[in-house]
Amino acid sequence: MTESHYKFLNTINVPKDLRTVDVQHLREVCKEVREFLVDSVSKSGGHLGAGLGAVELTVALHYVFNTPDDKLVWDTGHQAYPHKILTGRKGRLESIRQFGGLSGFLRRDESEYDTFGAGHANTAISAALGMAVARDFAKKDFKVVAVVGDGSLTGGMAYEGLNNAGLLKKNMIVILNDNQMVSLSSNNPTLWSLHNYFSEVLTHPSYNKFKANVWDLTGKLDAFGDRLRAVASKVEKGVKAVVTPGMMFEALGFRYFGPFNGHNVVKLVEVLRHVKDLPGPILLHVITEKGKGYEPAERDASKLHGVTPFDKITGISPKSSAPPAFTKIFGNTMVEICKQNPKVVGITAAMPDGTGLDILQQAMPEKFFDVGIAEQHAVTFAAGMATEGYIPVCAIYSTFLQRAFDQIIHDVSLQDLHVVFVMDRAGLVGADGPTHHGALDISYLRCIPKMVLMAPKDENELRDMLYTAVEYKQGPIALRYPRGNSLGVPMKEKLESIPIGKSEVLRTGQDVAILAIGTMVNQSLKAAELLEKDGILAEVVNMRFVKPLDTEMLESISNRFATVITVEENSVVGGFGSAVAEKFIEMKKFNLHLKFHGLPDGYIEHGSPSDLWKLTQLDPVGIASVVKDFYRQHSHPHTIPGRKAQ
């Protein structure tokens, strides 16, 4: 269906247009938004299930609130594709997550309707509270609404925000979009009917007017009135505690309303109108279904959470003939190791599919732990297990492990605990963009005392490094590997330990040495082939370890080469190259021409990995160009015995 065929959506470019539609037609608007979403994402890929479940909620929010003056703060961006459709970006939705296209998350620099950028969970409540406090300081008048998924309530930061908001008593609304992917409440339909009845009573204006009048009256009755107030308060809280799941939110200082059917857009509009002007912090609980309205997503919401382009009728993506993903290699190897070693367990933070630990979950569920969106807890939980002699393999995306930096130091490293950190999505992840690029893990881990840090060049080395990490007994140890498919090298059957801190020469040369780590090893080998065509013979070393470095190899390199270039898929600030430079200085190798090549000191946009490698000159052509320019800039006839300058 082309945009011109949409009766309502083709006239809605911004929320102001939506607010001209009669409320009784909003169901049709939702139907069109949902169809437009499926049609676009089937072509571009992206996050689907969460957005499908949030269509009615999104329409109702923009219909009731005066956005962008009123602030909607979304927790991450998975559920915000309908928000993008309604806020002037529907014509570009097919470009989402593509190089130069729309971000898959919220971006303040993309739209004035994106009030707070977020690709990680648990941030919306704290950010919304900050906006509410700033509003009151400035004596402005606008509403602030935070929209969080139930999965976000598995993370501690959400509760920190709720607790502080309840104490400050600022006027703000938190909407809990509960799609029951993380169960917080009963699925009993009878119970839901009862909840809906009481919720509608509690949000009705006449009820709140009556309550205010009673409160004012009792306030004039001195001590007797105080006792009446106390009894009335207990009765109201008691009734709400019995018939709603909101007791916890009430205890935190919120007025709780719900749960409501999140797919009844007319009722949502009515409820939002009732609560929008109530004073103090409000929590509105809505029940939605992830994947709602698209049958393939309703059947398997997890599978269609994030998708590549797919057939709109079947929901099936074309099969790939590419080698298995590194994630799958890791998952299968974990099962293999867990069968050999009863002390090994796997821990993840709400990403079993993304890390490959779903394979362990299916094969050996007793060895698998998913702690929710709670990376800090995951690390300290792992540390606790390590104190009792178990070997926890903590599999967390590189960009998410940043959240547990203190726990890695204080709870693991300081106590010499053997916790294995496995960082999926290291380097440039592609379409998810700067919030998900694993661009900093080498920098933030190598500064931690006692940490061992390594990165494999291919799938065999990934298997061996995982085995090495499990067998290591002297403290924390980490390995990083990329998103995407492996290289397709023939798989070894036997797992072998790699000597800690030992590298390998993969290609000998005479003119320049390329010291590479992880994904950049294969890229550097290809670059060396291109350099040879230009008459430059490059030696390529797979360093394997960022910490500890192979000092014997560095001694050999410094004795044989005047020009050395390090290549990494990490920030050049404090990264692998910095580690090499520090070691050369320690070794008093002051006459080397040394260049760091990696990710720049900034944030890389979203796009395919190949586009981003080209952008950052980390593809073979880019690496070869950087090496050639640097070598020719510093080469002299006497640099290497028997060689002439190029």
Describe the structure.
This protein is of the alpha/beta class. It folds into three domains: 3-185 and 252-298, Rossmann fold, CATH 3.40.50; 326-480, Thiamin diphosphate (ThDP)-binding fold, Pyr/PP domains (Rossmann fold); 504-634, Rossmann fold (3-Layer(aba) Sandwich), CATH 3.40.50. 42% of the residues lie in helices and 15% in strands. The protein contains 26 helices and 19 strands. The strands form four sheets. It has a seven-stranded mixed β-sheet with strand order 9-8-10-11-13-12-17, sandwiched between helices. A five-stranded parallel β-sheet has the order 2-3-4-6-5, sandwiched between helices. Strands 14-16-15-18-19 form a five-stranded mixed β-sheet, sandwiched between helices. Helix 22 crosses helix 26 (620-634). The model is unreliable at 182-199 and 637-646 (pLDDT under 50).
Number of domains as seen in the coordinates: 3
Distance separating the two termini:
60 Å
CATH overall fold name of the largest domain: Rossmann fold
Largest sheet: 7 strands, mixed
Q: What's the gyration radius in Å?
A: 28 Å
Q: What is the name of the CATH class of the largest domain?
A: Alpha Beta
Share of helical residues: 40-55%
What's the short version?
This protein is α/β, with parallel strands linked by helices and 646 residues long. It is 42% helix and 15% strand. The chain contains 26 helices and 19 strands.
